[in-house]
Amino acid sequence: MTSIVIPTHKRNDKLKRLLKSIPKNKFEIIVVNNNMSLAGKRNYGYKKSKGKHILFIDDDNELDFRAVENLEKAIRRNKTGIAGMLGCYSNKRDTICDGGDTRNLTTGFTKAKHFNQKVMIWDNIFKPYEVDEVANSFMVRRSLIKKIGLFDEERFPIDLDEADLCLRAKRAGYKVVIVPNAVTFHDSITYSRIPNFRRPKNAYYVGRNRILFQKKHHLPLRYIPVFILSYVLCLIWRFKFKLIKHFLKGVKDGIFNIAGSKKEYQV
Q1: Alpha helix locations (H) across 135-194?
Q2: What count of other Cβ atoms lies within 10 Å of the Cβ of residue 173?
Q3: Please, are residues 30 and 5 in contact by the beta-carbon 8 Å criterion?
Q4: Residue 132's pLDDT band (boundaries 50, 70, 90)?
Q5: What is the pLDDT of residues 211-223, one digit of tens each?
Q6: Which residues of 107-139 are buried (b: 16+ CB within 10 A; e: fewer)?
Q7: Strand, coil or helix: 165
Q8: Percent of the chain at pLDDT exceeding 90
């Protein structure tokens, strides 16, 4: 049996759309609607679940036919620990918004796979391919979580919680893959490679968590000044000057190891 854990944010219209796209009576569905962080909700849902595999999916998605079934087939393959869905824009369904990421562990910078490419998903022209990390909608073996632990909700209540889990899985010898014939339509607004912070909370966590991630996994910190400058320039380019102070506060807290609270950042 597969369990589906859905962290929701009081967006009932989106949640109803997602639930409608899930085949009925085939899966254990756990909707988590509490005041925890995103990572906390995922951990809470996992603890309530019973399935051999757990699909974590955000509430602003709509599943394609057989998406969950195709993920199940992929994750049963030897040493596959995490299987992510191929994300397409909900309003541009022939265009990929999330095809997984590769991460340079020296610089910390990531590269999105197949970003904004148009593709006929239905022809299944891609086979499952390995990536470094997945996000938004992905299936995890229960046995993997028992081996490496849950999402790190203290360091990464939101942002990089999936990346941290994926890196730990790979270091434990498991594969992380994207399954192209498992498609979700996501309400993503990322049409540009230039980062776009929607709110102060996102700006803060990008600054803080990036540094905490490098520290936790004993990765080089010498490129942090380049990272800081590049994101500040992105915020200036987008005329989001008010978010710069939240981003820099996150950087400061990351440098001084301010973590350990499961409560999300409050403006």
Answers
A1: 142-148, 161-171
A2: 9
A3: yes
A4: very high
A5: 999 999 999 999 9
A6: ebeeebbbbeeebebeeeebebeebbbbbbbbb
A7: helix
A8: 79
Q: Which of 107, 110, 89, 109 is nearest to 98 (CA)?
A: 89
Other Cβ atoms within 10 Å of 194 Cβ, number: 13
Average pLDDT in the chain? 91
CA distance 84 to 227: 27
Domain with CATH 3.90.550.60 in the chain: 2-186
Q: Confirm whether pTM is higher than 0.90.
A: yes
Contact 235, 243 (CB under 8 A): yes
C-alpha to C-alpha distance for 52 and 138, rounded to whole angstroms: 14
Helix 224-237 and helix 200-216: axis angle, to 10°?
170
Q: Is the pLDDT assigned to residue 190 strictly greater than 90?
A: no
DSSP β-ladder status, 110-112 and 137-141: unpaired
| CATH dotted code for 2-186 | 3.90.550.60
